[in-house]
Every structure is written in C-alpha cells, then in structure tokens.
TrEMBL record:
Keywords: Cell membrane, Cell shape, Membrane, Peptidoglycan synthesis, Transmembrane, Transmembrane helix
The organism of origin for this protein: Kitasatospora aureofaciens
Lineage per the UniProt record: Bacteria, Bacillati, Actinomycetota, Actinomycetes, Kitasatosporales
Subcellular location: Cell membrane
The name this protein goes by in its record: Murein biosynthesis integral membrane protein MurJ
A single MF term (Gene Ontology): lipid-linked peptidoglycan transporter activity
GO cellular component: plasma membrane
Amino acid sequence: MAAGSVVSRGTGMFRLTLQAAALGTLAVGGAYNTANTLPTSLYTLLIGGALNSVLVPQLVRARTEHADGGQAHEQRLVTLVLSVLAVGTVVGVVLAPWIVGLYMPDTPDNHQVFELTVAFARFLLPQIFFYGLFFMLGQILNARGKFGAMMWTPVLNNIVLITMFGLYRWLVPAPGDAASVTPAEVRLLGIGTTIGIALQAVCLIPYLAGTGFRWRPRFDWRGTGLGKSVAAARWTLLFVLVNQVALTVVTRYANAVDAVLQKAGAGNSAYFFAQNIWMLPQGIITVSLVTAMLPRMSRAVAEHRLGDVREDLSRGLRVTGVAIVPAAFFFLAFGPQIATVMFSYSSSGAASAQPLGQMLQAFALGLVPFSAQYLLLRGFYAFEDTRTPFWMAVWISGLDIILATGCHLFLPPRWVVIGMAAAYAASYAGGLLVTGLKLRRRLEGRLDGKRLVRTYGKLMAAAGAASAVGWAVARICSGAVPAPVVGSVLALAAGGVTMLVLFVLLARLLRVSELRSLPGLG
C-alpha cells in the first residue's frame, strides 16, 4: 500500500507542478481549482464521509455475522450508494451556478472569473458519481483484506491529467485572463479531468471480481439492517457538513484576495497547491496505515479486545510520527525552496511562488496534529461511534472559521491566506487535545499517553535540531548561486540531506525504537 501511495502521490505532485505551469496561480488557475473543489466537496457531503468511516465496520460485521458472508448486504449497499450518487450528480450539474456562488461572489469586477468557474464546474461535477464508485468499490476491497488496488489506480488518473495539462500547455503557452479561455479549452480541461477520475474508478472492477464479488441491483432495503448504517451516517453527514462550511469560508476569503491582488499569486490557487504538498506525507504514511488498521480495530471492538485497539492506536501514532514529525519540520525549514523548485515554471512567474512557500511554512507544524487526529478518529469509527467525531469537527471547524475570519478582517491582503494556513494548523492542534481526552475515556481511561509523549518529544527534539542545521546549510547554498531556481535546487538538496542524516543520528542517539519502521534507517 505504501508503495502504491508513493507512486500515486509522486505522480500527483508532478501533475500539480504541470497544472501550475499550464494554468498558473492567477485567474484561470483559480477558476479551475475552485470548480475542481466542488465534486469532492459534494461527493463527501452526499455520502463520502459515510463510505470512509461508517461502512467498513458495517461491512466487516456483515461478513462475520451474516450467513452468506455479507454478500447480499454488499449488493444492497452498492445499489443504495450508486442511486444517491446518480441523483446528487444530476442535481449538482443543474445547480452549478448557485453552488459556485457559495465559493466566490458574482460581482462586476469578478464576473468573467465567475462565469469561467461555472463553465468548468458543469464538466467537472459528474466526477461526483465516479468518486463515489471508486471509494465504494475500494471499501469493499478493504473489508476483504485487499488494499493494494485502491492505492495504485489513482496513478492512472494522474497519467491522464499529466497528458491533459501537457497538451494544454502546448496549445496555450501563456494563458491570459479568464475572458481569453475558449470553450474548446474548457472542454479539454473539464472532460479530461473527469475521464481521469472515471478511469480510476472503473479499473477497480476487475480486482473486485477477482475476490468473487458479483453485483446485481437490489432495492429491497427495508428490514435488512441498512437502517443502522443510515443512522450512523447521519452524524457523519453532519461531520462533513461542518467541514465543508469551513472549507467554503476559507475558499471565499482566498478568492477575495485573488480579486484584490490579481497578480500576486497569494490567494486560492496558492493555498490549494500548498495544502496538497503539505498533506503528501499524511497521504502516503498515515492513510496507508489506517486503511489496514480500521478493519482490524473493528474486529477487535466487536470481540471486546480493547487492549488490542489501544495498542493499535499507540503503535500507529508512534510509527507514523517517525515520518510525519520530520516532514513537518522539513516544510517549515524549506517551504520557499520547495515552492520555487516546483512552481517557478508557472505562467504566473517565479515571483508568485513565494507566497505559496510561505503558506507551506505556515501549514508546516500542523501536519503533526492533523495526521494524529485523522488516526484517532478511526478509533471512534471502530466503535461505530460517529457522533463524537461530529462534535470534534464542530470544535475544529469553528476554531478555524474564527481564526480565518480574523485573518480576513485584520491582516493585509498579501498575508491573509498565509495567516489562514496557520489558522488551519492551529485548529487541528486544539482539536487533537480534545479528541485524545474523549477517546481515552472510550478505552477505559488509558491511551498509552506516557509512551506517546516520550516518543513525540524525542522526535520533535531530533527533527527541530536537524531542521535548524539544514536551514542554515540551505541559506549558505542559496546565496552561492544567483539564479533563484538553481539556488533553490542546490539549497533544497544540501539542506534536505543534512537534515535527514542529522535527524537519523539524533533519533538513534535518543533511542527512538520506532525508527526501525522506516526501511534502511533502523
């Protein structure tokens, strides 16, 4: 799974770099990114949260308790999910202008960008159905202990998008403002993006057939146990709704910065790219581990083995921390160099990469609580408790909205979105504390806290010292070469290698036993 995630995320980073080169981080890139946010947001709101958190425990339980091994339950569930997705997709396409209006205002100064965003959205919103199909089939595979396919098939999507952005860059070497984008260009970007997601989903079908699963539509939903899934999903829907409210507020504020500073690259696209880079380690390490952990923890809860659940959570936090903590400090030390290397080839120019790098630094240390929060929530889902995660989302999203609004009102436009990145990180730090206390109660008052604090304290000390030395080395190297891109490459290579070597040496000196979980470093 980790290997599939590495290849998938690696090709995804190349796709993001090529996307920035083709569309830039200004009006055209902002319109595309805002429109491309809509399918994932609406899919998650419709049913995605339930698929990711509620249905795996339900599927595991059905396979254990039902006489047919849960086959009928799976068929009914697939039918229900696809029906909801089909209706939601049609409604989303019809209501595209109103949905876009939630994320950006349609003002005289912003009208061309608004209309371009709506045009993109009509082609991109059908992704709702294919996202749902991908995750539905993937969760059935996960419940059957087959994890690899779901990690590898996104590579196909990335290949399609890399080809599409490369073609667009060739056809349109230097995109102008929103009014200059032709209908043919909108169709290329919109249809090409949706085809990539569709291919990613359809390619799971042969893997699922190989496990013996055969689907036929079943609408006999009454009295079959799906009511329990729907009841659990109710809280997950509210959980997702709260998160989407926060996302909508932040996107609207970021688009407002783009409207004021049209050439600065300090708004929504920069925030989108910085956040995607920042989440990369969590996507490779934490998501891969949690995907395998959730079915096992669900079985342990069903069999009342709370000690095993506690040990899984503790070990998961400690093992992921070995990679997540130094990654967070790496972003803090080298954010500007990363942005310069990846996004100086953008049609917006090298100068627009600097706000992006500063956003990455603002996000940086929040990666630690963000990753830990993601893992701990799966502890509640193993108990089939979706109510507590909802209240955690209220706390985190509420804090994020308050802090982001403060940035919007009181910071200069150039620093608003950088401040919102720091606000996002701070909100997860506060949320992690509350989540840990509540999960501790579910696990009979114990969460292996002393060992976790000791391990993370050592990791933070080692990563902090190593990143400081690496930063100093990068500063020296970047000043030795006048060309900004070449200097950033040299600084990133020298500083990054210095940080990695020193981190490993210090972690060994501090006796961080979990270091053995990283191949070649134990």
